Amino acid sequence: MPPDQPGLLAKAWQRGLRDTRVVMAGSVLALVILVSILCPLLAPQNPYDLTQLDIMDSMLPPLSRGAAGQLYLLGTDDQGRDILSGIMYGLQISILVGIVSGVVALLIGTTVGLTAAYFGGIVDAALMRLVDLQLSFPAILIALILVAVLGTGVDKIIIALIVVQWAYYARASRSAALVERNKEYVEAAHCLRFGTFTILRREILPNALPPMIVVGSAEVAAAIRLEATLSFLGLGLPVTQPSLGLMIANGYQYMISGNYWISIYPGIALLLTVASLNTLGDHLRDVLNPRSGD
Amino acid sequence: MLTFIIGRVTQALAMVAVMSALVFAAIFAIGNPVDVFLNEDMTQTEIEAVTKALGLDLPLWQQYLRFVSNIVHGDFGSSFVFGRSALSVVLERLPATLELAFAATIIALLIGLPVGLCVGLRPGSRADRAVMSVTSFCFSVPTFWAGLLLVLIFSVELKWLPTNGRGETVDLFGIPVSFLTWNGLRHLFLPAFNLSLPLLALIVRLTRAGTVENMGLDYIRFARAKGIAEWRIVFVHLLRNIAIPILTVTGLQLGSLIAFAVVTENVFGWPGIGKLIVDSIMQLDRPVIVAHLVMVVLLFSFINMLVDIAVALIDPRVRMSGKAK
Question: Any chain B CB within 8 A of the CB of A144?
Fold first, then answer.
């Protein structure tokens, strides 16, 4: 049995409530997730249903009214799409891609990390060499190689993000598991003649999890940002599934002539999402390891 | 020292070998290898001829050796778009990217070091907290969006700086550079500043942390007790001790800057290899893609190797730990 200790999340929750920045970040993130789930209900229009778009309403500045009298809170783009609705739908795709790739990378990375830590020796050395090699190259370079080979599209981008991220999880889970491996409860499990897989999954994994949550929040933020970057470059998601990066890229050509709102507001939504994830990640890290950071 | 250098060079070579194998595997094993060298309008017989000519009927390990030998000879095939050797297309664009990356590094050091020192000497002050918030903003903000903001503020609203391109260039030893003309400098500043943002934030944090840590150490107290002037303590004693980690990180980030230039170059229309790779991926100009990726991996490994060796030359502790292994 894993030893009883106050859960990381419970501790983080209690301490976070006393920190304004953490409360703000948490509220922003909760709002973003809520909006991205409920966007078909909340959004004033479905920005990708062409029948709902009115070309007469294109390029309207924020707070203006359309031909039918409806209010465009954040303005419209070149095709008369409501920017606010675009942001809501874009957030949904960005967050979905970030979380799906994060979860799969977590599963793969943790499996590799736990295997390396448990078996040690040549398995450990080989796996960790691979991890070191990958981490020595910048994420964007790895992502470019993959996009160049695989092509673009939602599934390809998710694959690219998984490949970019797994190594971080592998390294974090290995070092967490190395600490746990030599503890008494693992020895006790050995004495009970539990199988290797059972010990890894039931004993070591739950105790190695807290640092993984910390890595996870930072990595999901990085994945969302990387996806936005790739989409901005035109190498990410297709036009039929417009993420925030694509909206920003689309607005860039109009920004030079002063129509700033098409690019700026989706960017703010992206920034708020990434920044709140990073703030929560830093907070979790501080709770887990009070001496780190400054 | 020689052992360290030999060890580090071997490590870099191993890294390049593994990466070349990975690029090879990615292109030849996952994708259809013929696709990499063909464009879509070729006929079936032409495709078969190319398959033979590329040696794709050979066993995989022989294909890999061919691939490596082609790289060593600089033969990546010719670009579909430019109709010239893919390598020469990449090499032509490389100086623009290097200029951008070096300019970004210089900007990051020129701003980051003084700011980090100032707030590090007064930790907890209002300026310190403000700077820490700004740096965490720099870590979160996507580079491309920060670039858009810079364009919006400095080009569209204030009309101080141009939005696009490289401006006038002057040949320096046969290589066109922007930083020697006023017009070129104006074009260089915004993209270089945009590219430098994450590094700038990192340097500020590192300098600050180093300053805070070192100011409490005995050697600084001793220097104070000796009555050495405060400016001399900061600029001579302190700076020398915090410089090594900062320079190491800066050097190691240079490779990342070259990789990340892809984003900045596309925002500012800077004609370097980063803009080239995105255009090539969109136009399926595969020889250029392969040449670019191999070139960046080589540059990256080479720069990191040089930085490690330079650090070992300056810092005896690294040398010793290398020996202990």
Answer: yes
- Indicate the pairing of strand B175-177 with strand B170-172: antiparallel
**Which of A233, A215, A240, A270 lies closest to A94, judged by CA?**
A270
Instruction: State the greatest distance between any 2 C-alpha atoms of chain A, in Å, as a whole number.
Output: 76
The mean pLDDT values, 10 residues at a time, for chain B of 325 residues are: 80 79 67 57 70 67 77 74 81 87 92 89 83 84 85 77 70 67 76 90 89 83 82 81 84 84 87 86 79 84 83 69 48
Phi then psi dihedrals of residue B59, to 5 deg: -60, 155
| Probe site for chain B from A230, A232, A250 (most B CB atoms < 10 A) | A232
B260-to-A137, A138, A249, B84, B142 alpha-carbon distances in Å: 11, 8, 17, 26, 11
Q: Do the Cβ atoms of A57 and A29 come closer than 8 Å?
A: no
How far is B294 from B289, CA to CA, in rounded Å?
9
Centroid of chain to Cα B53 = 36
Q: What 3 state SS string does B38-101 have?
A: CCCCCCHHHHHHHHHHCCCCCCHHHHHHHHHHHHHCCCCCECCCCCCEHHHHHHHHHHHHHHHH
User: CA B265 to CA A267: how far, in whole Å?
Assistant: 19
Residue pair A250/A232 in contact by the 8 Å Cβ criterion = no
pLDDT tens per residue, range A227-267: 888 888 888 777 777 788 888 888 787 777 777 787 888 88
Contact B144 A146 (CB under 8 A): no
DSSP state of A153: S
Which residues are CB-neighbours of A116 under 8 A, at least 6 positions away?
A123, A124, A127, A128, A170, A174
Pairing assessment for the beta strands A71-72 and B170-172 based on DSSP bridges: unpaired
Q: Which of A19-23, A98-102, A196-200, B63-67 has the highest mean pLDDT?
A: A98-102
Please, which residues have CB within 8 angstroms of residue A280's CB and are 6 or more apart in sequence? A16, A22, A25, A26, A29, A217
Of B140, B263, B281, the CB nearest to A147: B281
Do A278 and B140 count as a contact with CB atoms less than 8 A apart? yes
Place of tokens 């890894």: A200
Considering the domain A18-288 in this protein, what is its CATH number? 1.10.3720.10
Distance CA B293, CA B291 (A): 6
Task: Give the residue from A144, A225, A253 with the most B CB atoms within 10 Å of its CB, the best one to mutate.
Answer: A144
